[in-house]
Amino acid sequence: MAELLVQLFFVLWLVGSCYSVSIVEQDVLRFGQELEHLLNTTYSPCQDFYGYVCGRISNQTLRHQQEKQRFQQLLRSSNPGQLLAMEQKLLNFYKSCQSSRNLDSLMSTQLYKSSGGWPALESSNNNQTGLGWLGLLSQFHEMGTPYFFETRISMQSNKRLVTLQPDVTRRHTLRKFEQRVGELLQSFGVEQSRAHVASLEVLSLERNRRDIIKTERIDDQVQFSYANFKRSSFGNFSMARLDWDAYFRKLLGGKTLKSTDAIVVKQLPRLVDYMQLLQNTSIHRLLNWIWIDYLIDISAADCQQLVEIYAGDVYAHLLQRLSTDRVQLTQMYAGIGRAYKEQLVGSVWIDEISEQSSKRFLSQVMHIMLNGDEYLDAAYQDLQLGRRNFYRNMEKLRRFQHKRPPPTLAALQLRQYAQSFETIYELLPRQQPQNLTAPLSYVLLAERFANHLVAAGSSSRTPGAWRSIDSDRQFIQFVNCSKTATNTNAHELLLNMLAQRLAGSSYREWLGQQATVNRVNALLTAGKLQLTLQRLYFIGSLLMECREGQQEHKSQLQHKLLRNTPEFSEAFGCRHGDALYVQQQRCQLAEHL
Ligand SMILES: *[C@@H]1O[C@H](CO)[C@@H](O)[C@H](O)[C@H]1NC(C)=O
Ligand SMILES: *[C@@H]1O[C@H](CO)[C@@H](O)[C@H](O)[C@H]1NC(C)=O
Ligand SMILES: *[C@@H]1O[C@H](CO)[C@@H](O)[C@H](O)[C@H]1NC(C)=O
Ligand SMILES: *[C@@H]1O[C@H](CO)[C@@H](O)[C@H](O)[C@H]1NC(C)=O
Ligand SMILES: *[C@@H]1O[C@H](CO)[C@@H](O)[C@H](O)[C@H]1NC(C)=O
Ligand SMILES: *[C@@H]1O[C@H](CO)[C@@H](O)[C@H](O)[C@H]1NC(C)=O
Ligand SMILES: CC(=O)N[C@H]1CO[C@H](CO)[C@@H](O)[C@@H]1O
């Protein structure tokens, strides 16, 4: 730590006295300092680059306390006038979470009132809603919380197809659950003896529920017409006792099922077990269980987590636009787009269809960076979130997300790429807001972006679907040369190689235009890690991938890639005999038509 401070002072001294180092340069130097906490120097970069970059963080929890502060800082530094409506809504949600996650807010929600409330809170609650257990479940199912069973409704030709599937989730161990129930009741100020009774009731229901989950059931399914479903009985349990019409009316917003609509029940015996359990449970107990389960996660999470969980797409959108220098980042995208055009368009690897899809992706990402995503904004148009009532917001937001149509592939691709900014945010919580300037954008994002750009050239998620079938012959050669075990791995390697060429050449071009490269390199080299701008590129690109599972596989792939990259050996001074020294017979990619 002391050493670090000395170095920091040294750098600042250089900055203050000898040179005038720009904000951009400071950004790079700070990143260099940050890497001292992130890299594992037990590994030599030329022997095990994956270990060097990821050997310390892949198993480490990166989220710091500072992260929350940074989000607030980010929001504070944003100019509300520049936010799109959906971003403003997200901000409202966040603010409501910070200021009104309380009892009053909970008790004034629609859901609270219509369900009959949380009995543990109100000793005098004799409000019988008369819902019955199925009616009570419908209140929650409609909002997208599938207690006991999940109901999915779709259209098939001109009939509705309803699938009922028993829920088998256990988010916590029973012990943990018990502990959380205690904490929750306490945090809501439930008087101790009442809390004790409530938690015993809830635990016994939870135990029964888990017994039903534990029972092995074959994965069968049974199909009924709706009319037959309502009339049927299983063992001594008759469906006719339940008001299924009311249940579906709630889920369908007032519409009803036709008697010829189809009902498919998965794991019918388990569903019947649940029904017998629910039939035998008092509404009072069920309400206590359901409200506790509903509140347990949202009352413990911090506000930023809730934003991420329940409006992840808007969160990622906000993050990418607030935490970066938009103009510099857009210029980087354009630069990589040019490299794509020069190096890939007209090559055997892609055809015109791929090219069109990749181009569309590029222009969308650039547009989002400069102007925001109006499709996403439009998707959130009907959602109203105020600043005052957290639980009401929560209910609206969950219902809204539940009813949204599934995203298109193009939207998914954009969303996946946008998640890179969350990774940066986790990696560098100390980076100032709005300071992801050009060099850091290249270092952290260029390769990942290039990867998404190439892969976006297909309307399917099959690995390698972006590749033109005209390149089959070259691909067979590539597989042979790269000695990859499966075609999937070969496609991954090929994609990474192409992405690295696009991103690496853009970065080198950008470096070539900077007058200060030597000066910054001199400052970087003086640091403990002896970095250079060239080294930063390889480190940063891999750093972004460290946390995403399958470490053995990732490391093999990365090392194969680096053995095909002369610039890597050059940047790190790898020598003949080093494991990652550039191989003699490199796999050729530059096959033009
Ligand atoms: C670096 O890696 C070595 C070998 O896996 C490990 O023992 C060590 O704990 C790591 N160092 C840090 C600081 O994580
Ligand atoms: C990291 O975690 C994974 C699984 O969680 C484990 O298999 C692996 O051995 C761990 N690696 C180190 C270096 O601790
Ligand atoms: C009973 O329900 C009504 C409306 O549903 C509500 O205004 C009232 O506060 C409830 N009383 C209690 C004790 O919960
Ligand atoms: C239905 O049968 C189960 C055993 O299969 C029994 O435990 C339960 O009490 C019965 N319920 C009714 C209402 O008869
Ligand atoms: C029904 O509930 C009672 C009291 O809670 C319990 O004793 C009984 O075993 C339950 N029966 C079934 C079938 O779950
Ligand atoms: C695979 O590569 C080896 C050289 O590494 C070559 O001798 C062989 O002919 C190649 N096979 C095919 C099918 O291209
Ligand atoms: C250390 C540093 O570069 N800070 C800058 C980050 O960005 C903000 C806003 O653009 C500047 O005000 C800081 O000086």
From TrEMBL:
Keywords per UniProt:
Signal
Q: How does it sit in the membrane?
A: Single-pass type II membrane protein
- The gene behind this protein is LOC111602658
InterPro entries, per the entry: MetalloPept_cat_dom_sf, Peptidase_M13, Peptidase_M13_dom_2, Peptidase_M13_N
Its source organism is Drosophila hydei (Fruit fly)
A GO cellular component term found in this entry reads: plasma membrane
Domain of life from the UniProt record: Eukaryota
Organism classification, top ranks? Eukaryota, Metazoa, Ecdysozoa, Arthropoda, Hexapoda
Q: Where in the cell is it found?
A: Cell membrane
Which residue range or ranges hold the Peptidase M13 N-terminal domain? Answer: 45-316
Gene3D superfamilies for the chain: Collagenase (Catalytic Domain), Neutral endopeptidase , domain2
- Tell me the protein's name: Uncharacterized protein LOC111602658
Signal peptide (from-to): 1-20
